[in-house]
């Protein structure tokens, strides 16, 4: 019977559904497949059929289902899974979709090319590993239902991905494995009892009728195990073969089916040996290994799900009518919320009344509670430890810092480093080599001991299954990512761990990174007839009209008893500020702006930040300011240098203060007075010289260099642009976390190497044992499962 050109299913006799593709009339099995293929052709994507490695899925979505998709356009429905984002000044929406029917890379290519043609769609990325699609679109030009219909038109189903659905899927998967394993365990024990009776024939004479009876009983007990318990291996093998790939399930299924068929033959014709006990134990050990592996991998990757659970379900909202219990997800910007002592905050907000210590360990990794007062920002998921608070919601839950962390963590896990891709390729090629070796082993034994050929080949297939090899990298990377998140380092891209192990230079911004960014006034020195209080009062009056960090230093200075009023105040960008006070023109700013020459400026070689106050004819005062170094900055520089890393301060500050900071910290290089373009050019120059650099910054001017570095970290208190450009974020603004991240990266690399060494070494060790006939199939199954568990357990050490 002819197969459908689109989905591969048989075309019913007398069917007239067909479509001309590249000049050839191709048969279709139904109008659904014909419509899907027509859509593909109309979109100019006919080359999909040339590059696909598996048939498309059947076009089954009926018009009633398409109509139901419009429900996803309702705002109250979207609030659970759609987030607002920005692209420049344009407001976009972002969603993560689960996609059914993905079978190969060609499917992802087809979906991306088709959806890109939708007006208003700005970004689409389909991950064939997780079967998810990340999409950004303009709600003014495109609806969510149209995007979902776009999937349906080419034969795929998509629906919003949500954490609780993932939890339900995991629970169903564990329950399924438990049922299958229970049947295999009980069945294998009963089969083993029959096997004992069969093995007795080696020692004493047993009548043939009893031997036949026990063989048939073993067959009856083994059949449910082979049909039900071993089903996951058959399904995995069938999917792999349909896609034209070889997976570990292929070799396992070949071994199981071959052994079972051979045993049935021996039972029916009463010739040869049966190995029902080995088969059932094999299935039991495989399922046990899969279950333990599933739980271990789940534990390693559950940090994102655990973050979602930190937000309480209910919140106490305050309005004109009093206090009401409402669902936390219904809170909107401007709502007032009561948070009692010991409760968890339900949303990001600003404290309106009250003061309390908040435990923010889940965000920053800092275990000590922080004092928060009226006007301070607070975040969803943090714990109020000691006093009631009233907060005003500043962001809905889907835009909270916690939600951002979860999204960024998902991005990092979706980004597969080169070493993980290498492991995937190795495991796929290893299966092909394994099958060739198994064929050679069977050929050898067939001519030397035919009765043992099958069972030795079975042991080879089972013992050398590359389960451990395929788990060597992903379990380690997932555990390391979860550990970093708990420690206050949020990875946005997966290559950071790899770069940390190879980097030889750390490049850091000064202000806000090595320093606190809070400039303070150290001293006031009168230079004329006015006293210190009068000079400070004039400076405070002028600086009150500016929001520059230097102006904030004067605002925080101790107030004077002198009250002044200013007029005609005007800031001069890059120089200072000027204005009229009591009929006199005053200026406060840099020595260069005030026209001081070398003779008049005795402080030209002095370190620190110095500005001057002058009237129309003379200098009145000199102010010395300083930006305080972070407490851990010097220790961090010393630790980096002890680890063999070169250190560079790369700053836009061209003053003598940059030199003073560099001298105090003892960095290897200072590059000051740099523009954003200059910073990026410097980093490219270091790259051309062979350096692998880590960049740390916080400001808008650091964004280009953060994006251009091999790996980059942004401070949590930095600008949004800097955080969006960086590869990772230091949630606690704690520079010592960089050292912890590098230490963990080195441990991760070490454990990945250990996993590779164990998995490859185990296969090299067990292959000759199995090929020589020394290893029975059931011990081969136990060894393979144990090998996988050792790799997963070794990776879990990174989670401690």
From TrEMBL:
Keywords: ATP-binding, Cell membrane, Ion transport, Magnesium, Membrane, Metal-binding, Nucleotide-binding, Phosphoprotein, Translocase, Transmembrane, Transmembrane helix, Transport. It is a multi-pass membrane protein. It is found in: Cell membrane. The chain crosses the membrane at residues 181-200, 212-234, 246-268, 274-292, 430-447, 453-477, 756-772. Its EC number is 7.2.2.9. Residues 93-159 form the HMA domain. GO terms for biological process: copper ion homeostasis. Belongs to the cation transport ATPase (P-type) (TC 3.A.3) family. Type IB subfamily. This is P-type Cu(2+) transporter. It comes from Aeromonas lusitana.
């Amino acid at each position: 019977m002819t197969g459908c050109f689109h989905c591969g299913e048989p075309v019913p006799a007398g069917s007239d559904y067909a479509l001309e593709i590249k000049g050839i009339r191709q048969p279709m099995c139904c109008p659904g497949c014909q419509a899907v293929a027509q859509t593909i052709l109309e979109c100019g994507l006919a080359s999909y059929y040339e590059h696909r490695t598996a048939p498309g899925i059947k076009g089954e979505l009926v018009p009633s289902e398409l109509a139901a998709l419009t429900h996803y356009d309702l705002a109250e429905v979207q609030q659970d899974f759609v987030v607002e984002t920005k692209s420049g000044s344009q407001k976009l929406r972002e969603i993560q979709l689960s996609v059914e029917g993905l079978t190969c890379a060609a499917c992802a290519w087809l979906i991306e090319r088709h959806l890109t043609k939708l007006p208003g769609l700005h970004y689409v990325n389909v991950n064939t590993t997780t079967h998810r699609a990340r999409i950004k679109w303009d709600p003014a030009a495109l609806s969510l239902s149209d995007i979902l219909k776009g999937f349906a038109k080419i034969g795929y189903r998509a629906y919003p991905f949500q954490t609780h659905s993932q939890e339900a899927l995991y629970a169903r998967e564990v329950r399924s494995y438990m049922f299958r394993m229970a049947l295999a365990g009980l069945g294998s024990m009963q089969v083993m009892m029959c096997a004992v009776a069969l093995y007795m024939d080696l020692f004493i004479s047993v009548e043939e009728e009893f031997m036949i009876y026990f063989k048939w009983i073993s067959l009856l007990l083994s059949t449910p195990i082979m049909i039900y318990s071993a089903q996951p291996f058959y399904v995995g093998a069938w999917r792999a073969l349909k896609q034209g790939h070889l997976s570990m399930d292929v070799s396992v299924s070949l071994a199981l089916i071959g052994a079972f068929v051979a045993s049935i033959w021996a039972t029916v014709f009463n010739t040869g040996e049966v190995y029902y006990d080995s088969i059932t134990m094999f299935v039991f050990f495989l399922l046990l290994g899969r279950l333990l592996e599933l739980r271990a991998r789940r534990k390693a990757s559950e940090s994102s799900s655990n973050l979602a659970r930190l937000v309480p379900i209910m919140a106490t909202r305050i309005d004109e009518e009093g206090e009401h219990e409402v669902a936390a997800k219904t809170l909107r910007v401007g709502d007032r919320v009561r948070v009692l002592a010991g409760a968890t905050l339900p949303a990001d907000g600003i404290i309106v009344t009250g003061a309390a210590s908040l435990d923010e360990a889940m965000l920053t990794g800092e275990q000590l509670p922080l004092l928060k007062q009226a006007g301070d920002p607070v975040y969803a998921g943090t714990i109020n430890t000691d006093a009631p608070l009233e907060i005003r919601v500043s962001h809905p839950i889907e835009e909270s810092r916690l939600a951002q962390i979860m999204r960024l963590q998902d991005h990092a896990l979706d980004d597969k480093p080169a070493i993980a891709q290498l492991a995937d390729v190795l495991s796929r090629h290893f299966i092909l080599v394994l099958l060739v070796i198994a064929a050679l082993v069977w050929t050898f034994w067939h001519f030397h001991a035919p009765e043992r050929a099958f069972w030795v080949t079975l042991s080879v297939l089972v013992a050398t299954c590359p389960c451990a090899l395929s788990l060597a990298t992903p379990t380690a990377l997932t555990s390391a990512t979860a550990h970093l998140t708990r420690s206050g380092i949020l990875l946005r891209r997966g290559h950071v761990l790899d770069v940390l192990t190879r980097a030889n230079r750390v490049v850091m911004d000064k202000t806000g990174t090595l320093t606190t960014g809070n400039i303070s006034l150290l001293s006031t020195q009168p230079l004329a007839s006015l006293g210190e209080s009068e000079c400070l009062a004039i400076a405070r009056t002028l600086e009150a009209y500016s929001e520059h960090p230097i102006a904030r230093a004067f605002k925080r200075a101790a107030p004077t008893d002198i009250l002044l009023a200013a007029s005609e105040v005007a800031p001069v960008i890059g120089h200072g500020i000027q204005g009229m006070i009591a009929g006199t023109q005053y200026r406060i700013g840099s020595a260069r702006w005030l026209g001081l020459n070398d003779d008049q400026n005795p402080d030209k070689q002095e370190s620190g930040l110095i500005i001057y106050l002058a009237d129309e004819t003379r200098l009145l005062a000199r102010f010395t300011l300083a930006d305080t170094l972070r407490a851990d900055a010097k220790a961090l520089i010393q630790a980096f240098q002890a680890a063999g890393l070169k250190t560079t301060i790369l700053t836009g500050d061209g003053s003598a203060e940059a030199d003073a900071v560099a001298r105090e910290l003892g960095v290897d290089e200072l590059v000051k007075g740099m523009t954003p373009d200059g910073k990026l050019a410097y980093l490219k120059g270091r790259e051309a010289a062979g350096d692998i650099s880590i960049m740390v910054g916080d400001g808008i001017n650091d964004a280009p260099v953060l994006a251009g570095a091999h790996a980059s970290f942004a401070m949590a208190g930095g600008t949004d642009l800097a955080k969006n450009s960086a590869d990772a974020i230091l949630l606690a603004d704690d520079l010592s976390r960089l050292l912890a991240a590098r230490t963990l990266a080195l441990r991760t690399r070490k454990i990945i190497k250990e996993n590779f060494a164990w998995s490859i070494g185990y296969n090299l060790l067990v292959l000759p044992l199995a090929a020589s006939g020394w290893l029975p199939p059931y011990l081969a199954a136990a060894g393979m499962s144990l090998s996988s568990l050792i790799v997963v357990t070794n990776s879990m050490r990174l989670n401690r």
